[in-house]
Amino acid sequence: MPLDFTAIDFETANGSAASACSVGLIKVRNGRVVDRVGWLIQPPFPHDEFNEWNTRIHGLRAQDVVGAAGWVEQLPDLVAFAEGDHLVAHNAGFDMGVIRAACAATALECPEFSYLCSLQVARKTYNLDSYRLPVAAMAAGFEDFAHHDALADAEACAAIVVHAAKRHDVATIHDLSAITGARLGRIGAAVAA
């Protein structure tokens, strides 16, 4: 089984996990980036207010998402792009929490995915002073990206996982999880049951 996964990153409008305002997705097949996509999201009411703090981080404002499709319209595109892959995210609990919360806020069933946290992988792969995404990505040889741009962050996350797999001489997400002790988590209806 090859190193196949979809890296994902969300930016949020405010402190609510349901306030996704942009997403970046990077598809990796056999350890290589083969596709990338990102888009803006209109957060669902009442999670749609843009907090000044969040805007300072990612630069997105309410006017930037005017006319963007909402979570209900975009979730099928996200699921279709991921094609049942393992999802990978840096501090995956946050990004999986966005999926769960946005689905709950819009009365949608949370899609089923397994996921791996590149932050946990980085902690077991590199000896760094910080494991924040830019630092861990630099250790993986991925530098000078627009941190807090969802697509750039997803690509940095993918680079960490690909590099870590090579460093640990493993070929799959399952093997990388096993050798680093980074748990493969699950979200979706099967988890809630």
Polypeptide structure, described:
This protein has a single domain (5-192), classed as Ribonuclease H-like superfamily/Ribonuclease H (Nucleotidyltransferase, domain 5, 2-Layer Sandwich), CATH 3.30.420.10. It contains eight helices and six strands; from the N terminus they run E-E-E-H-H-E-H-E-H-H-H-H-E-H. The two termini are 29 Å apart. The chain has helices spanning 52-58, 71-82, 92-105, 118-123, 133-139, 150-167, 173-180, 189-192, and strands spanning 5-12, 20-29, 32-40, 87-89, 113-117, 185-187. The chain is α/β, with parallel strands linked by helices and 193 residues long. The model has no long low-confidence stretch (mean pLDDT 96). A hairpin with a 2-residue loop joins strand 2 and strand 3.
Key terms for this structure?
193 residues, alpha/beta, Nucleotidyltransferase, domain 5, six-stranded mixed sheet, 8 helices, 6 strands, globular
How would you summarize this macromolecular structure in one to three sentences?
The chain has 193 residues and is α/β, with parallel strands linked by helices. The protein is built from eight helices and six strands; from the N terminus they run βββααβαβααααβα.
